[in-house]
# Entry
Amino acid sequence: MTGILAIWHDLEDAYSELYEHWLVTEHIPERLALPGFVEARRYEALKGGPRFFIAYAATAPEALASPEYLARLASPTPQTREVMKGFRNMVRTACSVAYRSPRQGLGGCVVTAYAENPAVIDEGQLERDPRVVGVQLWKAARGPAGATSSEAKLRPGGDRSIEAALVAEVMREKDGEALEDRVRSALGAGARVHAGSYRLLGAWRNEP
# Structure
């Protein structure tokens, strides 16, 4: 899997119940039914924001610009149109996996850092920490996969995009909070980087 659709966002409280129902019963199954979409993982911030982090894994970045996916974006369901009104501070970027550490465990939490203009990236420093069970570096996809989503106009404020993201899998919440500064600095000292810790809410796979 070398394609990643990375999403961070906040949500108006009034939309919480609709959002939970829509995401689990409609949106994630809909996305995983598309060609090339393999897995969805959903997280919630331990503190601060953006409140939610969602990552869709695909066989390749090209799956994030397939005719089937673009058609779905162009024809959102009634529930999608309604729930998008509650989205705030949306960060959404189609990415390719630029690096994946030899150790690739699934932790109960992740620390994510993203930047619009990252400096020199040093993902290796995280691999040597025993609290880290896996590291990935994502970079914004170019070409059709990197095009602006047609759904963005439904979300107040539109979408922001990033150039790179670093994701470190850890087992415990306390480890995530302790490593935020290191993950932030690994994505580039001096760059404008946002980092946060997230606990896993669920993972879904498209089983053949």
Summary: The domain at 3-205 is CATH 3.30.70 (Alpha-Beta Plaits). The first strand starts at residue 3 and ends at 11.
